[in-house]
Every structure is written in structure tokens, then in C-alpha cells.
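Run log // design_07
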């Protein structure tokens, strides 16, 4: 079963504004949600893609990036994981850039960085995606992994952010 990793940020204008000395509005604050959607083949190595999106409640895409991910080495420090890897972000293609920088995503700075993903099949009850957050492994969402083919997929959504737009 293959799932695609979708990274979407749902953003809603929440009415916070700042003013300049002349009294004109200069900034808007947008509440947003980040969603990542990915697919990979994991068979002793990891090779895959990920789409990262930032969107508003009205489904306006503020940022969409297409990433290619490759294995940078297996991890052994995720005690709950069946497998875990450091992953190179090899390429970053900008699909939509309305507010990528405002959302904290600099496409040119992402390429060449490393992220970490792990997988656990919790006693057959739920396949779980793990990542490192603040230096520790944390389960972030459900995923799908077919051990016979190595097909791995995930949709990790629900990371709320606030964007300030001038």
C-alpha cells in the first residue's frame, strides 16, 4: 500500500496587524498547518520523494516544494523503530512560492541538509512514522510499509505554524 507524503500548511488570516508610524497596516499574521507527503523504496537503503506544502484553510497554496531524499546511513538510536535512516535532501524543486520564506522554508538552503525518518509496526496494530524533533525520536503520524516490496508511504500533517507577511 503506497501513500504519498503531503506537507500542507493550512493558513487562515487571524486579523493580527501591525502599524507603521503613519498608521497604515504593514503586516498580516496567518495561522498555518504544514503537511508532508512522501513515497520511498526501503530495502536496506532509502530512496524517495517528499512533497512539502503550506496551504490556507481556503486551500490556497502558499508554498509547495518537491524534495528528493536519499539514504545517508542507517540509524540505531530509535529504540522503537524497526528501521531508521538519516536522509539527504538531494534536490528541492519549487512548485509554488508565494510565502515559502515567510513560512521558514528557504528552498536553496534545504538542499544538502539531512532529516531523519524511522518506521515502527506497533505489534501489527499501526504502522508509524517517526522523526527526530528537538533531538529525540517522536512518532508523528501513520504510514504504510510493505516489507515484501519495500514500498513506504506517509502523510504527515498537523504541524501548525504562524506566518507573518509584510
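design_07 sequence
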Amino acid at each position: 500500500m503506497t501513500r504519498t507524503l503531503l506537507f500542507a500548511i493550512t493558513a487562515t488570516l487571524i486579523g493580527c496587524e501591525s502599524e507603521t508610524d503613519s498608521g497604515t497596516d504593514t503586516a498580516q499574521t496567518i495561522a498555518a498547518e504544514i503537511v508532508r507527503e512522501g513515497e520511498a523504496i526501503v530495502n536496506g537503503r532509502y530512496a524517495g520523494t517528499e512533497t512539502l506544502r503550506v496551504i490556507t484553510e481556503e486551500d490556497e497554496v502558499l508554498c509547495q516544494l518537491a524534495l528528493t531524499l536519499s539514504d545517508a546511513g542507517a540509524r540505531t538510536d530509535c529504540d522503537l523503530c524497526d528501521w531508521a535512516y538519516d536522509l539527504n535532501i538531494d534536490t528541492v524543486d519549487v512548485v509554488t512560492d508565494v510565502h515559502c520564506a515567510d513560512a521558514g522554508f528557504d528552498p536553496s538552503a534545504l538542499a544538502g541538509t539531512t532529516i531523519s525518518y524511522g518506521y515502527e509496526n506497533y505489534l501489527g496494530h499501526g504502522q508509524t512514522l517517526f522523526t527526530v524533533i528537538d533531538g529525540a525520536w517522536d512518532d508523528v503520524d501513520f504510514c504504510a510499509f510493505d516489507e515484501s516490496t519495500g514500498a513506504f508511504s506517509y502523510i504527515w500533517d498537523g504541524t501548525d505554524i504562524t506566518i507573518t507577511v509584510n
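Residues 76 and 84 are 7 Å apart (CA to CA).
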